[in-house]
Amino acid sequence: MRVAVAIPCYKVTRHVLGVIGAIPDSVERIYAVDDACPDGSGEFIQAHCTDPRVQVLFHEKNQGVGGAIATAYRQAIEDDVDIVVKIDGDGQMDPRLLPLFVHPIMRGLADYTKGNRFFRPESVNGMPFVRLFGNAALSFLTKLTCGYWRIMDPTNGYTAIHITALRELPLEKLEKRYFFESDMLFRLNTIRAVVRDVPMDSVYADEQSGLQVKQVLPEFMRKHASRLWRRYVYNYLVRDFNVGTLYSIFGVFLLLAGFMFGAWHWVESIWRNQPATSGTVMLGALPIMVGIQFLIAFMHYDVSSAPTEPLSRLLGRVGESDLLEALPATGGPDA
Fold this sequence. Notes:
50% of the residues lie in helices and 11% in strands. By secondary structure, the protein is an alpha/beta fold.
């Protein structure tokens, strides 16, 4: 398979040459995307890098990491490569780990692989507690939003994707900035791509992140809520109507009915200064308990319905010759 590497370049002139130099020889192409870098990363690479595999792509305006990777993805589709690996240019991702990300895709076990810094306890020894806790909370939120319940470390940018899945993605709709990795997982779930984690260790270079948590947290919550609703509507109302749909509808209905009934009689008991009867309390509590059970069943169904058959096996091997062989031997054009 033809493997390419995409490197978003923004203020990475101190590390990018070392990153490029450590990329294995098995990689055929390297796309370095200068995202309107004020340090001139693209010109710096062209002036100091002699690797013939490197192709520098330029943005006139800064688009963020998502915009840079989308540009590299489009070039990879045009060059008809098979797998595209995304590595940051700041030295925090070891290019020597690249085979670990590529092999599951080559073996037909996944369409998309991503790094997981939480797989081994030793990997998080040097990680600050605040980042560890925040990443764990964000991982659970992303599981809800994207439907990939077996992944961890959703903001990890060390990824690889098969060209079959890449061609199915609406690259023009991908988030361009900090929400890119989470949005990528959401888009992959809508096309039923298989995602696998790859264990890796944490590496902290001297580059400082431009992410301000207080500024982006409200935006992150809004975008997660939007994608959670869209995934539910698409997977459980539009694409399919299944037992999970029934679990969720009846669960929400019973919860709301129980809360509304209980709240009404609670207010009425205060107004009349008379406690509610045990039967009234049970009529309010029973729908709530049953509704919770329905929602738990829905969560169990959602966890078990994660994609398991890679698109690269379903779609990647079907070509024109396969379709011609599937036509009846004696049939004409209209058969």
